[in-house]
Amino acid sequence: MPTAYSVRHEFGGRDDFEVAAFRTRREAAEYVRRHPTVTVHSAGGRIDQIPNVIARREIPAIVPCAACGTGLATSKDPKAFPYCRNCFYTGQAYAHKMARTLAEFDEGLAGSGLKASVEHTGGGCFMLVLQSEIGGEGEYYALTDGDAAVDTGYPARWGYIGRISPVDDEQVALIYDVYESLPPPMIGSVGPGEPIPDEWYERDVAADAAKIGTAEAIALIAEDIANPKPTEASA
Ligand SMILES: [Zn+2]
After folding, report:
1. What is the C-alpha to C-alpha distance for residues 133 and 114, in angstroms, rounded to an integer?
2. Among 174, 191, 192, 211, which lies 20 to 30 A Cα-Cα from 39?
3. 127-184: per-residue pLDDT in tens?
4. Residue 15 clears pLDDT 70, i.e. is over it
5. How confident is the model at residue 202 (pLDDT cuts 50, 70, 90)?
6. How many helices and strands, by DSSP H and E, does the chain display?
């Protein structure tokens, strides 16, 4: 197996994790030099991490990251997911994968000042974000497939659109939600060997059928820009 030099992020001296891998020790050291600290956003708030440990390790194949070109893909199948972890965590990997979809939002909303990007919201969760190119201090739009993920396929489909406050990242207006008109989720659990209730499937199927395409999402956002839905606090 080929070897790579990995950079880990340390925070609080406990949960270290690898964020990038490079072909040479020099490239890894250069990454550390350029990133004395890295601030990441997570469900627990903003955390400063220190990239400072370089370790040599084996990786399945030498596949340069398709998004940044410098890091190495370190997933189990680097050819299927040719992105480094750093680009995964920053959203750059999905932005690269979703380039056509992002371009559609940028074209469809040209003149609005909004620019499409992908943000990692913690864990394995992502959202597509439409925010002002200048500073990004105004309200922004967040889109997901309805379940805290983004559809990286093409054409993409959307299940949730919200207008979000930049202050606390809370929703201020709901633009679209596939689950809005569906009954609340069933509470309960299924034991080993027990059949999964039909209602669980039916809700998923109905939610999937209610997802909209990118053109429809753009139309709803353009409508909200022209005629903003009242914010939930003042409604
Ligand atoms: Zn990368």
Report:
1. 6
2. 174
3. 999 999 765 678 999 999 998 899 999 999 999 999 999 888 889 999 999 998 887 7
4. no
5. confident
6. 6, 11
Centre of ligand 1 to C-alpha 42, Å, is 20
pLDDT for residue 41: 61
What tokens were used for 121? Answer: 């919201």
The region that residue 185 occupies, defined by phi over 0 for left and psi between -120 and 50 for alpha, beta otherwise, is beta
Rounded to the nearest whole angstrom, what is the distance from the C-alpha of residue 119 to the centroid of ligand 1?
15
Span from the CA of 147 to the centroid of ligand 1 (angstroms): 25
Say if residue 70's pLDDT is above 60: yes
> From ligand 1's centre to the CA of 71, what distance in Å?
5
Could you tell me which residues come within 8 angstroms of residue 73 by beta carbon, excluding any fewer than 6 positions away? 61, 63, 64, 65, 66, 81, 82, 83, 84
Q: How far is CA 198 from the centre of its chain?
A: 31
Tokens found for residue 218 = 């753009």
Identify the helix (H) or strand (E) that includes residue 142.
strand 140-144
Per-residue pLDDT, 235: 45
Single-letter code of the amino acid located at 177? D
* pLDDT of 159: 96
Torsions phi, psi of 162, nearest 5?
-135, 150
